[in-house]
Design a protein that fits this description.
single chain, 661 residues, alpha+beta, 8-stranded mixed beta barrel, 5-stranded antiparallel sheet, elongated
């Protein structure tokens, strides 16, 4: 049987697949063949090594022409190798711009071209000679007999049309088909009934004094299947076999074009599996993959044949519902899909329960093109996940307005970072027994050129979602340390840290750099963390915290009482200060429950030798109650709002004057 040397490249000329025979063909450079490596690079190495004698003396010209032939196939061409072999190369562009190549070693064919019979009989390519007048097969070589499976006497009493699956004319009776360069492609049938795709190359000759045609019959069935597989993979999800995002967009675009002509409505539903990551983490990716397959099956069984289901993300699906007559039809389908996904799944002995959230957009009202409709359905999904997981939401124009506002916020925030507009303001920390300032907490402020001062509650969430919090946190830390170095030596600086700053892996170096550049002693720096950070129980985070404390930096637990408040955190990591959330301070004087909680926290701090700071003090009554309970330190609008450095320096000068007096 004829052995094909096959290879395929992507649109950039990078290797995707090749078979063993292809590698053997180019043995000198076969070790360079790797997925993703450019064909041009391996070709250039071969030229430099002298593997292609035709390139000697005109290397660049030869390389340029060879690469041009790769991406603009114009027929078969031959290639001579340094060891004397001659290779017949056939290449074809695929639908996605890639290249499928077939290489045949025709060295013997070229060497024996003067002796046709010897060539014909010994050629590994299946070949037959057909009479032009009655199309009878006059001769068949051993490769043809072996490949087709007919006995030689039977073979040589057949006509060429007996091999054809459906066509009636002879293979040389029309021009080559458009999907093969230099060859006619036919469907043939072997003796056992197996259909094959055959590329037929023909040449006129005289056989036993009769006008005849020599046909080389190259079986390209395997290549056709590979092309079909690649085409399918480019349009479908490999795990579920569902259409992928590219195919979904094409199909949705076609449906929308039809709906504009006919006036029908189309619904797009973005479906996201809730808490899928936790299932993957707990049970493993194999279970997660099988769950996705089962979910896809349930979703598909809940749809009509004309509806479309696609997988567009790790745990996200999209449904296109056609011919929607009223919104109630969409609601009914959404409920049916939620019910289908919400049932229990039994996977490898595990009972898995999962829910889904759905966002819905309707065309033409919510968008008349595929991208806009998918975007709006995704916005509706985001609302469902944020406010009511396990249900569905329809798109509303306000969602797009909020998304645009958030996007503008991100753009403005990036500009503010680049232009160094963000700066720290400082809110004083007051010793409640003496009334003197003991330190300041640095709070980031953003003076926007048109919107004025933007509250941190608006831009910090955007900074954390986009990862900008790491840049902002580092800049504010450095800026605050430089300014705090100008304060008296007994005044401390407190800086909030986001959990995301710990996950980047460079927080320790950022803190050390800020201290070194500013000259601020480490003992005067206090870093505020939240309980959620310690809940992660990460070895990396704990190691970073211990390293910071080893520098002499003090640690404070911010917003104490609003998280889990597990005493094990205080035991596993030594905290220097507990900051009680403002929600426990508000109306403290008239709330006995709040007083009892505050008393317990202050007692806890006293027992552990940890300072307790109360946040959000706004009234004299709250201050009096905290002093009575023995709270160490306070912070809030009763004392001062956050102020810029110039005000802080004046405030400290006044305190100094009072102490001297």
């Amino acid at each position: 049987m004829f052995c094909r040397r096959a290879s395929s490249f992507d649109a950039e000329g990078r290797y995707i697949l090749w078979n063993k025979k292809y590698a053997e063909l180019y043995g000198a450079t076969a070790h360079l063949f790797k997925p993703g490596r450019k064909f041009a690079d391996t070709l250039r190495i071969g030229v430099a090594a002298g593997s292609y004698p035709e390139a000697v003396g005109r290397e660049e010209e030869w390389l340029s022409r060879r690469l041009d032939r790769l991406f603009h196939p114009g027929g078969r061409h031959e290639q001579k190798l340094a060891d004397g072999r001659v290779i017949l190369i056939e290449e074809q562009l695929t639908s996605d711009g890639g290249v499928i190549g077939l290489r045949v070693d025709i060295t013997e064919l070229k060497q024996r071209e003067e002796s046709f019979r010897l060539l014909f009989e010994n050629n590994p390519v299946p070949m037959v000679v057909c009479a032009l007048d009655d199309e009878k097969i006059l001769a068949a070589n051993d490769a043809a007999v072996s490949h087709y499976g007919y006995a030689r006497p039977d073979f040589e009493h057949m006509g060429i049309r007996n091999l054809q699956a459906s066509e009636t004319e002879a293979p040389w009776a029309r021009e080559p088909s458009g999907d093969e360069n230099g060859a006619r492609v036919w469907k043939h049938v072997k003796a056992d009934g197996t259909p094959i795709d055959v590329a037929i190359y023909s040449r006129h000759l005289t056989h036993d004094n009769r006008p005849a045609m020599l046909l080389a019959l190259i079986d390209i069935t395997e290549r056709k299947r590979a092309e079909a597989r690649l085409a399918f993979m480019s349009q479908h999800d490999s795990l579920t076999g569902l259409p992928n995002r590219a195919m979904l967009r094409d199909r949705l675009g076609g449906l929308l074009a039809g709906s504009r002509r006919g006036g029908q409505k189309v619904a797009v539903m973005c479906i996201d599996l809730d808490n899928f990551k936790s299932i993957n983490d707990a049970l493993g990716h194999d279970v997660g993959d099988k769950l996705l397959g089962d979910v896809a099956s349930r979703l598909r069984s809940s749809l009509r044949d004309e509806d479309c289901l696609a997988r567009v993300g790790a745990n996200e699906f999209v449904v296109i519902q056609q011919d929607v007559e009223r919104p109630e039809d969409v609601v009914m389908l959404a409920k049916r899909l939620l019910e289908a996904v919400g049932g229990r799944f039994l996977i490898e002995g595990h009972a898995v329960i999962v829910s889904a959230s759905i966002g819905i957009a309707l065309a033409p009202g919510d968008g008349d093109d595929a991208d806009k409709l998918l975007k709006n359905a995704d916005l509706a999904l985001s609302r469902t996940k944020a406010h009511a997981r396990g249900t569905y939401s329809f798109f509303e124009p306000a969602m797009d307005a909020r998304a645009q506002a958030r996007r503008q916020m991100e753009v403005d925030l990036r500009a503010a970072i680049d232009e160094r507009i963000l700066r720290p303001h400082y809110q004083p920390l007051i010793d409640l027994a003496s009334g003197r300032i003991t330190g300041f907490e640095a709070l980031v402020r953003w003076p926007h050129p048109t919107r004025g001062m933007i509250p941190p509650s608006e831009f910090i969430p955007v900074a954390e979602e986009t990862g900008l919090i790491n840049i902002i946190g580092g800049n504010i830390l450095r800026h605050a340390c430089n300014e705090a170095a100008l304060w008296p030596n007994d005044i401390s600086l407190a800086v909030n840290l986001s959990p995301l700053q710990f996950r980047t892996g460079n927080l320790l170096s950022v803190v050390m750099e800020a201290l070194n550049q500013s000259g601020l002693p480490a003992r005067r720096l206090e870093l505020e963390i939240t309980e959620t950070l310690l809940m992660e129980n990460s070895e990396h985070i704990l190691a970073t915290l211990h390293a910071l404390r080893a520098l002499g930096v003090r640690m404070s637990m911010d917003d104490f009482g609003t998280g889990y408040s597990s005493l094990s955190y205080l035991r596993s990591f030594p905290i220097d200060k507990i900051k009680v959330d403002r929600s426990f301070v508000r109306d403290l004087a008239g709330n006995k429950d709040a007083q009892a909680i505050m008393r317990a926290i202050i007692g806890l701090g006293r027992g552990l030798g940890v300072k307790v700071t109360a946040e959000g003090i706004e009234t004299v009554d709250e201050l009096a109650c905290l002093r009575q309970e023995g709270c160490h330190e306070g912070q809030g609008f009763l004392f001062s709002h956050a102020r810029p450095q110039r005000d802080i320096l004046e405030m400290l000068e006044r305190q100094k004057a009072q102490l001297v007096a």
